[in-house]
Amino acid sequence: MSNKGKYYITTAIAYTSGKPHIGNTYEIIMADAIARYKKADGYDVYFMTGTDEHGQKIEERARQAGMTPKQFVDEKAGDVKRIWDLMNTSYDRFIRTTDADHEAQVKKIFKKLYKQGDIYLGAYEGLYCTECEAFYAKSQIVDGDKCPVCGHTVHEEKEEAYFFRMSKYAPRLIEYINEHPEFIQPVSRKNEMMNNFLLPGLQDLCVSRTSFTWGIPVDFAPGHIVYVWLDALSNYITGIGYDAEGNSSDRYKKLWPADLHLIGKDIVRFHTIYWPIFLMALGEPLPKQVFGHPWLLQGGEKMSKSKGNVIYADDMADLFGVDAVRYFVLHEMPYENDGVITWELVVERTNSDLANILGNLVKRTISMTNKYFDGVVANKGVKGEVDDDLIKVVTSAYGKVEKDMEEIRVADALTHIFEVFRRLNKYIDETEPWVLAKDPANSDRLATVMYNLTEGITIGTSLLAAFLPETADKIVKQLNTELRSFDDIEKFGLYPSGNKVTANPEILFARLDEKEIMKKVEVIREKQKAAANAEVVKPLDHKPEVTIDEFGKMEIRVGKIIDCQKHPKADKLLVFKLKFGPEERQIVSGIAKWYKPEDLIGKKALAIVNLKPVTLRGVESQGMLLSAEDDKGNLELVNVFNVEDGAEVR
RNA sequence: GGCGGGAUAGCUUAGUUGGUUAGAGCGUUCGGUUCAUACCCGGAAGGUCGUGAGUUCGACUCUCACUCCCGCUACCA
Question: What is the model's pTM?
Answer without folding.
Answer: 0.83
